[in-house]
Design a protein that fits this description.
heterodimer; A: mainly alpha; MetI-like fold; 2 domains; two-stranded antiparallel ribbon; 3% strand; B: mainly alpha; two-stranded antiparallel sheet
Chain lengths: 329, 334
């Protein structure tokens, strides 16, 4: 296990280095002069030169990349106007536009995306596993076929379509739900909950379709195994068979998939966030992309990439923890 | 080996040598497949005949009709259902007065072209790299394997948004969308093809070809590609609807197709500001997008259960290939 984790940690660093290299190469070789962008349209050539020097953009590209990496490991200093701006250890640079540190900007938005992802996760697990179990047990009946069709449709709707339709029906027409907004949990838990309820459901309805299909096939697979037949022959009740044994078969893939989905959610919540105007990481990305604020974009890509890679490792470990047949090497 | 590798890399048994005609007949015997097929055919026809259809209507997708908007209400179309009339079959766009029908049928073109194009790019890169990894030297295999790993870990939506924003706007947007979606989504295909190649390599006819002195290229072309067609086609059928969604999503975020060119995702992003005053304008592109993706998903699902014996026999299903691999989630065929 320890050796597995060490190897994975090394791989994680490798993948992140590769991602950062790709991102850096693409964005810093892209057309458009970052110094000009940072300075603004109306800057004189002298001012642009000054900005270029201040941001370290006058160095060759490979040195810039080295400085960028150095910033992540050891922090770096920027000369901001008159004084020095120190950017501590995991430094992802400074926004061209606002002059804020990218890590601070990301940290400020993280609670929003985390609230969105975790709340949606609770709903999609309940909905998805419940539906999947139900449709596995009622195989062949009308209700099951309806559920299967629904989950197929669920995998086909983009989140911004279902979100918009729910917004029109539940908020604008029926007025059952307030329009989505974000209030920090620490400020007002009740408002936090009601403001996020619709985004949670929009995300969860789509995600749960995947889980329903996964649970259904895993339960069916387990129920077809020999030991279940033996239990049944010994007179173990059907309900106990399902809750104690068949669900256990679904547990492992569902947990692993949850870890993966949570990891990718930090990047893929961008559609939900822009639809509902939630000020999370995705919203920050769209805004920064609009402003061509490269350090923020690079930082966000790295952080969301980190989440995905980490989620992969966590999923592997959870797989081994919940299913003893899997050996990590 | 780590569990994820075992799961994603495990070779699916090569598809049965059922004749194409037999598969067709079995597919067409299902009512859902026929319905989905009908939707797809209609869509393709609509997209192909878009200029003709708008000419019949007597409108075009780009001209503004300010006279049809209620300026007192902030630019909402006058008349019921978003300004439906004999001249404008599905009403006009709030704010601009552009004809909705014309924009929808032209949007179908973008949606289909980009999705199909991106799928072709994904499959081409995936097959090439997968074959190279499976047949090439160990070093090459490792290199391609690591690249695939990085591609899977890349937050593709985030990366696509950034790429779309960085490229200058005078570059053709639909082409750029095709390339970006295609270049970011080949990892699953490459993994599948590599695993298939490794298992196919063990077969007698491949060994015989090698002993007969066939080059790697010839083996790939003559011995492997025919056997790879079924699994790759299956996977492509699953990729297609996700590419439709990707295009719509990027255009929805405002980094995809730019006006005056129309796209369903872009119409929806405009709809977010109008949904209270003009719900019709939201519902039309939503319904079309939903119908398209659903039809492709149903078809992809059917093709997969027909061509993939593993899914059909419900043996060892229920694991996932990771975030980058849509549809690898095993589904028991009912």
């Amino acid at each position: 296990m320890i050796r597995f984790l060490l190897r994975k940690a090394l791989g994680l660093v490798g993948v992140l280095l590769a991602i950062s290299l790709v991102v850096y190469a693409v964005f810093y070789l892209a057309p458009g002069d970052p110094a000009q962008l940072a300075c603004g349209e109306k800057c004189s050539p002298a001012q642009v030169l000054q900005v270029r020097e201040r941001l370290g953009l006058d160095a060759p590209v490979h040195l810039q990349y080295a400085h960028f990496l150095q910033g992540i490991v050891a922090g770096r200093d920027f000369s901001a106007g008159t004084g020095l701006l120190h950017c501590p250890a995991p430094c992802l640079g400074v926004s061209y536009r606002s002059g804020e540190q990218v890590t601070d900007m990301i940290a400020a938005r993280l609670p929003v995306t985390a609230s969105l992802a975790l709340g949606a996760m609770v709903i999609w697990l309940v909905l998805g596993v419940g539906t999947g179990l139900l449709s596995a047990l009622r195989r062949g009946r009308l209700g099951e076929r309806l559920l299967t069709a629904l989950t197929l449709a669920g995998t086909a709707v983009p989140v911004f379509v279902i979100g918009l339709v729910l917004l029109i029906v539940l908020c604008a027409q029926l007025r059952w739900l307030p329009f989505p907004s974000y209030t920090p949990l620490t400020e007002d838990p009740q408002q936090w909950f009601w403001g996020l309820l619709l985004p949670w459901f929009s995300l969860a309805l789509i995600e749960s379709a995947k889980y329903a299909r996964l649970t259904r096939s895993a339960v069916l697979e387990t129920l077809a195994e020999d030991h279940i037949r033996t239990f049944r022959a010994y007179g173990v009740g059907e309900r106990r068979l399902v809750t104690r044994h068949a669900l256990r078969g679904a547990l492992t893939p569902v947990i692993a998939l949850t870890a993966l989905d949570l990891g990718t959610m930090f990047g893929s919540a961008v559609l939900t966030e822009s639809l509902f105007g939630l000020p999370g990481l995705g919203k920050l990305l769209v805004t920064s992309v609009g402003l061509i604020d490269l350090p923020t974009v690079v930082g966000l890509t790295l952080v969301t990439g980190f989440c995905v890679v980490l989620a992969n490792v966590v999923a592997d470990v959870l797989y081994a923890v919940t299913d003893r047949r899997v050996v990590l090497t | 080996m780590a569990p994820r590798e075992t799961r994603a890399g495990e070779a699916r048994a090569a598809a049965p040598a059922a004749g194409g005609r037999q598969v067709w007949r079995r597919l067409l015997a299902r009512r859902t497949v026929r319905a989905a097929g009908l939707v797809v055919v209609l869509l393709v026809l609509t997209a192909a005949a878009a200029p003709l259809l708008t000419a019949v209507e007597g409108q075009d997708p780009t001209s503004y009709h300010n006279d049809l908007l209620d300026s007192a209400a902030g630019g909402v179309p006058t008349g019921s259902f978003g300004g439906v009339s004999a001249e404008h079959w599905l009403g006009v766009e709030p704010g601009t007065g552009r004809d909705v029908f014309a924009r929808l049928v032209h949007g179908a073109r973008i949606s289909l072209l980009v999705a199909v194009g991106a799928t072709l790019v994904q499959v081409a890169i995936g097959v090439l790299l997968g074959l190279a990894a499976g047949l090439g030297s160990r070093l090459l295999d490792q290199l391609i394997g690591n690249t695939t790993e990085v591609m899977l870990a890349l937050p593709s939506l985030v990366f696509a948004i950034s790429l779309m924003a960085v490229v200058p706007t005078d570059f053709s947007r639909p082409l750029l969308l095709t390339l970006v979606i295609g270049l970011l989504g080949w990892a699953g295909t490459s993994r599948l093809v590599r695993a298939q190649t490794l298992s196919l390599k063990q077969l007698d006819h491949v060994a015989a070809a090698r002993l007969a002195g066939a080059t790697r290229w010839r083996i790939a072309r003559r011995e492997l590609l025919p056997a790879l067609a079924a699994p790759v086609l299956t996977y492509a059928a699953v990729l297609l609807p996700t590419n439709v969604v990707s295009e719509a999503g990027l255009s929805f975020l405002g980094v995809g197709v730019k006006p005056p060119t129309s796209s369903w995702g872009q119409m929806l992003s405009g709809a977010t500001t109008w949904f209270r005053a003009d719900p019709m304008y939201v519902l039309l592109p939503s319904a079309l997008l939903f119908a398209t993706v659903l039809a492709f998903t149903v078809l992809g699902d059917a093709v997969r259960t027909e061509l993939d014996p593993r899914a059909a026999s419900r043996l060892r299903v229920g694991t996932t290939g990771g975030p980058g691999g849509p549809g690898t989630t095993g589904e028991a065929a009912a």
